[in-house]
């Protein structure tokens, strides 16, 4: 996109009249949604599941690489903030045996299509949570390269979409002109939020048939975030050239740098757990999903053009401003309104949990295993009326951030089926997998099918998680004489060589 168009987009997003009109439309649309929740319009016939999966591209030497636009036309994958990022989605399916199998097929087919399209450009996809082999020219130059157009900052390696550029400039202004990330061994500071594109995630979705029950699923999701992040952590290092040769970093670095990357990129120096990106509070009623979006700060508003709407006639097409604002309501678990229920008429709608705290996993089989665990666990906990939500919210939040830091060694927090508080990991994971199985059986999956799905993730209970594997490889290389940057890059090249294959991570 031409720089003049990007400058115009930023100017519109900061225009006070546009902001007032945008906020008015959000309030009007929100009131319609509240009424639809109260009237049962967002109730559906079935549970349904879906998935978003993010990754990045590398060149033939394993270095981070920009993705040319034709790849997206051929592969059917979506663009993300960084010019190196891609996202594949699986369409929503009914949460039953056939629907879960269809999810697995869709995810595999979409990743394969991305690989084929990237391969035509001499590139390859990587399923990973943070890229660590820097591009040609180095990380600092890649993340810090910006141009100034009439006071508007345009990051060279950000997708030049008006929404991204407007968001970048708004957050940059709120941050005093610099975005800083400060983690063990590294401090980065740039005139852009592009370092947020270091991190990628997978996001399971669960559509709830009875919206009055939505808070029970949402609040249960908050209390599962710490234990599930502990099983899936995959982001202990930044790009290798960010580090000096200090082996102490290996032990000091968090297992899940994705979380501070995103929070510090957006939150303008707010304390951990505060700011726009954060661990959300419990919900008391389903309409609270809407109230939170309305109350959230408005960032980079856009007034929708009703004359150019590919979804015209659908429920979601009437919520353009609300949906735009919900897209920047950055919480680690979110409620999403307006998705079309599976198998219903075009004007159908739904309410679903978007489960956002987990990193991209090394293989498709690991990805499917995590998706099935999340949706099965949430359904099983609520169906059994499990007392997990008696766990104080502060304990759930602290458990989540401890999993960020310690990964498989996190101090877990749980309430058992008998109502007892526990931090014993064996007890916690016994219940996690027992109630996931219960939820999957309720969805109609046979026991042998359930075992096949859960096996790759359940076998990580001994601490064999991707972040621990990465730390161990780096530690071994340093012990053999490599510098820390050399060890990180060697580890990452081994990871890239294994990731995306048919062998689940636990068998590496």
What's this, in brief?
The protein has helices at 3-14, 16-39, 69-75, 97-119, 139-144, 162-174, 214-232, 248-252, 258-266, 288-295, 320-327, 364-383, 393-406, 425-442, 447-458, 466-479, 484-498; strands spanning 48-58, 78-79, 85-94, 124-126, 146-149, 152-155, 179-183, 186-190, 202-207, 333-337, 351-355, 414-415, 421-422.
Verbal overview:
With 508 residues, the protein is α+β, with helices and mostly antiparallel strands. The protein has a single domain (3-337, 347-507), classed as Creatine Kinase, Chain A, domain 2, CATH 3.30.590. Helices cover 45% and strands 13% of the residues. It has 17 helices and 13 strands. It has helices at residues 3-14, 16-39, 69-75, 97-119, 139-144, 162-174, 214-232, 248-252, 258-266, 288-295, 320-327, 364-383, 393-406, 425-442, 447-458, 466-479, 484-498; strands spanning 48-58, 78-79, 85-94, 124-126, 146-149, 152-155, 179-183, 186-190, 202-207, 333-337, 351-355, 414-415, 421-422. The strands form four sheets. Strands 1, 2, 3, 4, 9, 10 and 11 form a seven-stranded antiparallel sheet that branches. A two-stranded antiparallel sheet has the order 5-6. Strand 7 (179-183) and strand 8 form a beta hairpin. Helix 1 (3-14) packs across helix 6, helix 2 (16-39) packs across helix 11 (320-327) and helix 16 (466-479) crosses helix 17. The two termini are 43 Å apart. The mean pLDDT is 95.
């Amino acid at each position: 996109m031409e720089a003049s168009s990007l400058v115009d987009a930023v100017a519109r997003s900061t225009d006070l009249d546009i902001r007032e009109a945008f906020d008015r439309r959000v309030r009007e649309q929100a009131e319609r949604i509240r009424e639809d929740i109260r009237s049962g319009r967002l109730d559906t016939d079935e549970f349904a599941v879906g998935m978003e999966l993010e990754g990045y591209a590398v060149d033939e030497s394993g270095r981070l690489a920009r993705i040319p636009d034709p790849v997206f036309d051929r592969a059917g994958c979506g663009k993300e903030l960084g010019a190196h990022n891609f996202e594949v989605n699986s369409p929503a399916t009914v949460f039953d045996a056939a629907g879960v199998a269809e999810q697995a097929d869709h995810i595999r087919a979409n990743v394969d299509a991305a690989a084929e399209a990237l391969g035509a450009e001499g590139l390859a996809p990587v399923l990973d949570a943070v890229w660590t082999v820097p591009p040609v020219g180095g990380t600092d130059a890649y993340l810090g390269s910006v141009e100034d157009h009439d006071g508007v900052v345009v990051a060279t390696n950000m997708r030049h979409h008006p929404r991204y550029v407007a968001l970048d400039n708004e957050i940059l202004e709120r941050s005093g002109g610099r975005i800083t990330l400060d983690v063990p061994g590294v401090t980065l500071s740039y005139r852009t939020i592009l370092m947020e594109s270091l991190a990628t995630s997978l996001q399971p979705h669960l559509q709830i048939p009875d919206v009055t029950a939505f808070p029970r699923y949402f609040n249960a999701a908050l209390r599962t975030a710490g234990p599930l992040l502990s099983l899936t952590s995959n982001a202990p290092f930044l790009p290798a050239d960010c580090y000096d040769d200090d082996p102490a970093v290996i032990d000091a670095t968090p297992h899940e740098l994705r979380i501070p990357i995103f929070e510090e990129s957006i939150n303008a120096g707010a304390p951990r757990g505060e700011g726009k990106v954060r661990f959300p509070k419990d919900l008391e009623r389903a309409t609270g999903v809407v109230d939170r979006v309305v109350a959230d700060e408005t960032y980079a508003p856009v007034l929708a053009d009703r004359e150019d709407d590919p979804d015209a006639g659908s429920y979601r097409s009437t919520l353009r401003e609300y949906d735009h604002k919900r897209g920047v309501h950055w919480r680690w678990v979110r409620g999403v309104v307006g998705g079309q229920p599976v198998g219903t008429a075009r004007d159908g709608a739904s309410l679903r949990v978007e489960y956002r705290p987990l990193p991209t996993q090394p293989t498709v089989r690991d990805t499917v295993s995590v998706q099935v665990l999340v949706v099965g666990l949430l359904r099983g906990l609520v169906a059994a009326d499990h007392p997990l939500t008696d766990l104080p919210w502060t304990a759930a939040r602290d458990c989540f951030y401890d999993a960020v830091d310690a990964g498989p060694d996190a101090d877990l927090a749980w309430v058992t089926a008998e109502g007892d508080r526990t931090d014993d990991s064996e007890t916690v994971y016994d219940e996690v997998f027992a109630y996931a199985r219960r939820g999957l059986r309720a969805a109609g999956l046979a026991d042998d099918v359930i075992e096949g799905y859960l096996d790759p993730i359940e076998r990580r209970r001994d601490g064999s998680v991707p972040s621990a594997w990465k730390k161990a490889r780096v530690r071994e290389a340093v012990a053999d004489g490599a510098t820390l940057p050399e060890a990180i890059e060697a580890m990452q090249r081994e990871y890239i060589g294994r990731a995306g294959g048919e062998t689940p991570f636990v068998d590496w």
